[in-house]
Write a sequence for this structure.
């Protein structure tokens, strides 16, 4: 799911990627809000607070929300930069480095504990926003902008449009494409919701330690993807070997 690109990328790869990363984003969304009372998976609301600070001439609030916005932007910028640099040297690690960077960031916040998180709320919020910007940029590149995992506003808009199109598009190829897209959007929404539930329940019991689950999911996902991809290559190079590669 992290390795397939271009024509080799199919719906099943996007479904796996969307399910995993949406679940992670859901955990981060709720855990970040519970820990520091800041939404850390998107910046839509932060623009409203930023504008409010400007209008009210509240310099402190203005700068805080501007830094939040820049943190998310920086994560996306760093993610894309890492991929561009790495892909020229060793394409194999192009997607792995941003994923492991996110794992380290989430693990660091998990290690900080609730006391540290609340004492340094701005730093924790910026760290999580950076991690989510990094994730969103990576998944956008991998899926050719088909999958978005850190916010749902656009997804619900697209889902509403596509559900209405089911009544008007009757050709088999059109229906097939619409059904695939709707299935993908439902997967993202469902796993984001499940991640939010897991993050909420987990935070009540483990505080910021619930972010270990998010980091663990990413680690398992990148290892699974690499092993699966290697098996597919082995099967392609040695077709006589009996290797179950899965779909």
């Amino acid at each position: 799911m992290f390795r397939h690109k271009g024509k080799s990328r199919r719906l099943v790869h996007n479904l796996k990627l969307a399910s995993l990363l949406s679940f992670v984003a859901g955990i981060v969304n709720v855990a970040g809000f519970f820990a520091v009372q800041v939404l850390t998976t998107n910046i839509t609301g932060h623009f409203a607070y930023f504008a409010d600070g400007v209008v009210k001439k509240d310099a402190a609030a203005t700068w805080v929300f501007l830094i939040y916005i820049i943190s998310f932007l920086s994560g996306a910028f760093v993610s894309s930069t890492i991929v561009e640099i790495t892909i020229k040297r060793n394409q194999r690690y192009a997607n792995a480095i941003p994923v492991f960077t996110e794992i380290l960031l989430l693990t660091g916040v998990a290690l900080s504990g609730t006391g540290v998180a609340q004492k340094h709320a701005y730093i924790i919020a910026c760290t999580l926003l950076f991690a989510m910007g990094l994730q969103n940029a990576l998944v956008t590149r991998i899926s050719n902008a088909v999958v978005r995992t850190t916010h749902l506003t656009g997804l619900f808009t697209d889902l509403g449009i596509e559900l209405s199109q089911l009544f008007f598009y009757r050709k088999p190829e059109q229906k097939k494409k619409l059904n695939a897209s709707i299935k993908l959007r439902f997967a993202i929404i469902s796993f984001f919701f499940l991640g939010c539930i897991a993050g909420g329940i987990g935070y009540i019991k483990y505080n910021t330690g619930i972010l270990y689950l998010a980091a663990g999911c990413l680690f398992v996902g990148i290892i699974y993807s690499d092993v699966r991809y290697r098996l597919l290559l082995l099967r392609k190079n040695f077709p006589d070997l009996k290797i179950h590669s899965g779909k």
Q: What stands out?
A: The first helix runs from residue 11 to 36. Helices lie at 11-36, 44-55, 59-89, 96-119, 121-142, 153-165, 172-206, 211-237. The chain has one domain: 6-237. The mean pLDDT is 86.
